[in-house]
């Protein structure tokens, strides 16, 4: 079995970059304020270099401009922010995307990822992060819009595969079946209508995925991401029953500053490995924007040490 360390997605913004964003946003918190591209590139390089120093094999650009978590995708697709809501079960809030006019709907272009690929082009390719079902779930508009929204998201995924070999869909809403039941079948049908030229990942977190949903994902995605911090037993059961092509195992807590025991993590991975495919990516269960920068670095370094123990 091959082991690798992967970034889950988001990474804490450098302190100086957070301060820069506060200055340009001003007192009104204009989160759409124009960011100087040279400043963004500097922050992206710092975040990428930090991941590289940690021993991360599959890097992301850190999602440094995703102020509204996964709802950012909907805002980039033409939804307008209106009001605040709690982001799942976290003590953090996002601006609620609202589609005021169907004619405003457009493809959500990930220019920040393209910029990162430009500054990192002489090194290993980066993994892009998107969201479809969850981005829509966090928004407000008529349900009938979802099919068109999903098609636009997948078109951007297709475009991203022109510059990278790995694209990840972050879909924590899948651990809440009642939340996505109205959209899931459409999500699958739209997904099946595309032929992607690369490795398509899906990342689920904040809990476990039920067997019915998992069975629909396993043959459609090259890498399945499961949360083994908050949904260990149920996710192991799905893995045992249906397997997967490759697994992204979220075994380190991305929302807690406590540093886990290497020996305990090794035991968990050995158990997961019994039902796992040829490649197992070690990662945190969620993105790292919930943590201070130093703790994010320690968590990723821990995973790198774990990989060394397993080889």
Explain how this protein is built.
With 311 residues, the chain is α/β, with parallel strands linked by helices. It has one domain: TIM Barrel, CATH 3.20.20.210. Helices cover 40% and strands 16% of the residues. The chain has 12 helices and 9 strands. The strands form 2 sheets. A 7-stranded parallel β-sheet has the order 1-9-8-7-6-5-4, with helices on one face. It has a two-stranded antiparallel sheet with strand order 2-3. A hairpin with a 6-residue loop joins strand 2 and strand 3. The longest helix is centred in the N-terminal third of the chain and has 18 residues. It is globular and about 50 Å long. The relative contact order is 0.15. The mean pLDDT is 94.
What are the defining features of this structure?
311 residues, alpha/beta, TIM Barrel, seven-stranded parallel β-sheet, two-stranded antiparallel ribbon, 9 strands, 40% helix
Entry summary:
This protein is 40% helix and 16% strand. It is of the alpha/beta class and 311 residues long.
State mean pLDDT (0 to 100 scale). 94
Total domain units: 1
CATH architecture: Alpha-Beta Barrel
SSE succession? EHHHEEHEHHEHHEHEHEHEH
The coarse overall form would be globular
Low-confidence stretches: none
- Termini separation comes to 9 Å
In percent, how much strand structure appears in the residues? 15-25%
Going across the biggest sheet, name each strand in turn.
1-9-8-7-6-5-4
**Overall CATH class:** Alpha Beta
- The CATH topology name reads TIM Barrel
Supply the number of helical segments: 12
- Fraction of residues in helix: 40-55%
Summarize the biggest pleated sheet.
7 strands, parallel
Structural class: alpha/beta
How many β-strand stretches? 9
Radius of gyration (CA) equals 18 Å
